[in-house]
Amino acid sequence: MRRLTASVCLAALVLMAASAPAAVPTFMWSDDHDGGGLFTDDGFRILSDPVGHAVVAGESADGVGGIDLAIRKLDRTDGHEIWQSRYEGYDDKDVAVTDMTWDSVGQLIVAGYIRGCVG
After folding, report:
1. Are 57 and 71 in contact (CB under 8 A)?
2. Residue 56's closest CA among 21, 30, 36?
């Protein structure tokens, strides 16, 4: 792992200060997701795929068993759902997402864990 020196950090600050101010982002669409029964539905991680669609990972409860890890891909133009996947913990255990990334061939990798005691 490369360490940044003070001169590199200072150069980065100068470059950032010299650049034109960024445009204020605007929302073209928004999405509220209710997985059912007004149970927990929260997104904690978001990535963009190569063409700009949003991939959101978080947790969702459907009232059966524990909280599931849920992933949704949303269309970049209007926010409609392209696909959704849910991963349930065994024995009604809750599952949480920790991170997402793309691998070198464009496959989505999602990391998570089972909350609570296992064993």
Report:
1. yes
2. 30
Rounded to whole angstroms, how far apart are CA atoms 64 and 12? 50
Mean local confidence (pLDDT), 13-33: 56
pLDDT digit string (tens) for 62-87? 777 788 899 999 999 888 999 999 88
Give the pLDDT confidence score for residue 110 in this predicted structure: 94
Contacts 24+ apart (CB under 8 A), 39-46: 39/63, 40/67, 41/70, 43/72, 44/97, 45/97, 45/99, 45/100
Q: Are 112 and 95 in contact (CB under 8 A)?
A: yes
Q: What does pTM read for this prediction?
A: 0.69
Residues in a beta bridge with 55: 47, 73
Find the helix or strand (DSSP H, E) in which 86 lies.
strand 81-87
Q: Name residue 52's amino acid.
A: G
